[in-house]
Specification:
- This protein is of the alpha/beta class.
- It folds into 2 domains: 99 residues, Urease, subunit C, domain 1; 290 residues, Metal-dependent hydrolases (TIM Barrel, Alpha-Beta Barrel), CATH 3.20.20.
- Helix content is 33%, strand content 20%.
- The chain is built from 12 helices and 17 strands.
- The structure holds zinc ion.
- Zinc ion (ZN) binds next to strand 5.
- The site of zinc ion has 5 residues, from strand 5.
């Protein structure tokens, strides 16, 4: 199968007309100029780019977006925990996961790292959804044993007993230190083996950090709680990291953890402005995520735009010398950058042998040197006409 369009190989270059031949689940050939045969999709006005990857998302929270007026802990108690309790019902878990998958693919997100609920029903739901739309994914049951409703505190260790799947792996997801005892964090460490990822939240809001200091009075700081349990490694995804001390930045940089910046979520919950300069100064590995439902956008180009805007806000209000990333940098992050952070080798790029997880776009403006900037700032998901997911062509209107 051949796709025709301008090839967005490098966001720093104006894409040239060309075509892509798909092999089984991979890009088999890339050529410039007119395609050698009639394309299955696309034309000379199309744009072909890699699918987006979201490094932090909560599948049970898609129907909970947009409930404003609360800080993190109140919002969890009033909005999120009741929503996650609904996954006790298997049909609800399956229906919401199917819907989340469909909405992600419609938005161009073809891979993610995310959270389910604590229930085993979530594992069944995500396996079923992946049979229909095989997103490349790392998903984990949420682990909690305190400070949440009783129905969310039972922890059957189901996920890691399931047979591994080609594009879906299960991670260990202690929600955050507030909802985890030392015993639970120790058991989380015991569940890690080989290439298993660990996902958790770190220093999202100030009140959360104060609470962690009260719950773990013997640890010097929040990151040390996780480190004491050997949870920090190069396969650890730490969402937020808004309120870290220098010692914490140095610790997570030294452990090669990935910090997942979630700009829309941080402004929605008034958690704070991420310190991109500290992350850069410490050489921390960085990814970005939607954090639905604290974030109320699914579209990754809009998360990228929010990352730029948060950096601009810091530069205007706090730190005139604050670094502001370019649209090209954030475009790389939402494609190959997030892919590399999640260990999705061969994803997020246009090259021979790469995963056939692609988007065909029809942007409503001229393709010139401002292309990436215009895409980031004017993004609409109906720019997407087709997706190629695991080598299969999907007309977006049919999703
Ligand atoms: Zn989150």
């Amino acid at each position: 199968m051949i796709l025709q369009g301008r090839l967005l190989v490098d966001p720093c270059q104006v894409p040239v007309p060309g075509w892509i031949r798909l092999g089984e689940r991979r890009i088999a050939q890339i050529g410039a100029g007119d395609p050698p045969e009639t394309p299955a999709a696309g034309d000379e006005n199309s744009l072909i780019c890699p699918g987006f990857i979201d490094a932090h998302i909560h599948l049970p929270q898609f129907d909970s977006m947009g409930c404003d007026g609360m800080g993190l802990l109140q919002w969890l108690g009033e909005i999120i925990f009741p929503a996650e309790t609904r996954w006790l019902d298997q049909e609800t878990a399956c229906a919401q996961t199917r819907d989340a998958y469909r909405r992600m693919v419609r938005a161009g997100t073809l891979g993610y790292a995310g959270y389910l609920t604590s229930h085993v029903q979530g594992i069944t739901a995500v396996e079923e959804a992946a049979d229909r739309l095989p997103l490349r994914a790392i998903a984990g049951q949420v682990l909690m044993d305190r400070n949440a409703p009783g129905t969310l505190l039972e922890q059957p260790p189901a996920a890691l007993q399931r047979a591994p799947r080609r594009r879906l792996s299960f991670s260990v997801n202690p929600r955050f230190a507030v909802s985890c005892s030392d015993e639970l964090l120790a058991s989380a460490a015991a569940r890690l083996s080989g290439d298993t990822f660990l996902q958790t939240h770190l220093a999202e809001s100030k009140r959360e950090c104060e609470l962690v200091a009260e719950l773990f009075p013997d640890d010097p700081h929040y990151a040390a709680v996780y480190d004491r349990h050997h949870l920090l490694s190069d396969r650890t995804l730490l969402a937020h990291c808004v309120h870290l001390s220098d010692d914490e930045w140095a610790l997570i940089a030294g452990r090669r953890c990935v910090v997942v910046h979630c700009p829309t979520a941080n402004t929605f919950l008034s958690s704070g402005l991420f310190d991109l300069d500290a992350a850069r100064a410490h050489g921390v590995r960085l990814a970005i995520g939607s954090d639905v439902a604290a974030g109320s956008e699914i579209d990754m180009p809009r998360i990228g735009r929010a990352m730029i805007e948060v950096a601009k806000m810091r530069a205007m209000s706090l730190q005139p010398a604050a670094y502001v990333p370019t649209p090209q940098e954030v475009w790389k992050l939402i494609t190959c950058g997030n892919a590399d952070a999640l260990g999705f080798s061969g994803a997020g790029r246009l090259e021979v042998g790469a995963d056939a997880d692609l988007l065909l776009l029809k942007p409503r403006f001229e393709i010139d040197k401002h292309l990436i900037s215009r895409l980031i700032y004017t993004w609409r998901d109906d720019y997407i006409t087709h997706c190629v997911l695991d080598g299969q062509l999907i007309d977006r209107r049919e999703l």
